[in-house]
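Bench notes, afternoon.
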Amino acid sequence: MTTRTFWAAVAALVLIGSLSTEACADMIRLRDGQWLPKKFHDEMGDAPGPSDDLLARSGRNNLDLAYDKVTISGTTISAGLVDPDRIYVTTAYENESFRNGELQGEAGAFEEAADSFAHAAEDLKGAGREVAMWKRVAVLASAGEADRTFQATTELLEAFPKSFYFFPARDKRARIHLTKGKSKEAAAELDLVVKAPGMNPFHLFEAKLTKIDFFQLLAAGDDVTKIAAARAAYEQIAREISERTDAKTEAHVQYLKANVGAGRCLVYEQAYDKAFAVLTSVINDAASVQDRTLLARAYAGLGDTVYAQVKAELKGGNVAKEELPRIQEKLTTASLHYLRTSHFYVDVAGDERFPATAGLARVWATMFELGGDQDCELAKRAAKAYYEAHKLLPRGERKRVFTSEAKRFIDKQKTACASDDESGNVSDDDDRDSGRKGK
């Protein structure tokens, strides 16, 4: 039995009796938790998905997807209000290959899932086909297949030029370009989103923020002038959202993300009190409960704030012995902020995983050094965090610089603690391998 035949058999066994051809229909959930068609919202309650009975009663072939608007059962709303993970299409769930792909993807069999979704897309039309093609993109990305992911996005965008997944597809393409050192091509992908006629505010401002993240803040390094320019760009995005009636609600998450970006720039500009106030306001905003990516970003920013304050205190060199407990306490606070992002919110941390994990490594390394290079358990944790952060970076100059930093600490830790533990090793082989699939 081939692998693909095996997974098809497993899927069939699991799904027999649970998804009949009459049991699936068109339903969507909005980002605020509301279900459409509206008449079924109360029945859904807090359920993650509709029951077979409810699906059977919700209608079929009543969903149109596009990057500007989504229409379901005669109700038209902005596409940015729709939760992309809660779209249920009649014809897709009636398709055996699609159902197999869902199960295979959940089981981590991404290659098999990609094949299943490809077969489903061949059979389906309209919204069903679009969702199947996007799910193929997603599982190929999860498999680390950068080139195949890129090709799958090409096929999706050619089949659906105004795809509901226009921004997420362009975003994946931009990231793949960046792993190959193609900055101009990456920027061009995001520009296509910004310039797309009628692009929904949620994705429009997400694309604008991503451009600032990649091409201004990350590229600024330690250049204070460039960092100030990045902050001004984030603040401009926040103003644009505030001034657009259609964006105030729909793009409120992006408004808060812009504030996080500005707050992190303030850290580099040594305006620590302002940075702390901005980042704390984001954490206290009610929207953070609904979009945990905000918390992941904001807590990473708070970690940066506290750690930067400590580094500024230590810059002079000698630290009075009586001051060490206070400084160690601040470093512990910084580590807790970073841990919230790198561990508690890891499933939504996205681009924040590296800075949070790297920040955690540096905090623990600093605590080890302030303790006289004596706490070897702490040193091992720092070495492990350095290694984990190192694996998150694609190959390139940024990774080479970080790898050198990590090696210096790991070598020091091994010497000070007479350690032969290799759990934190970083090597040139690691550096080459991690970029092969556009991670």
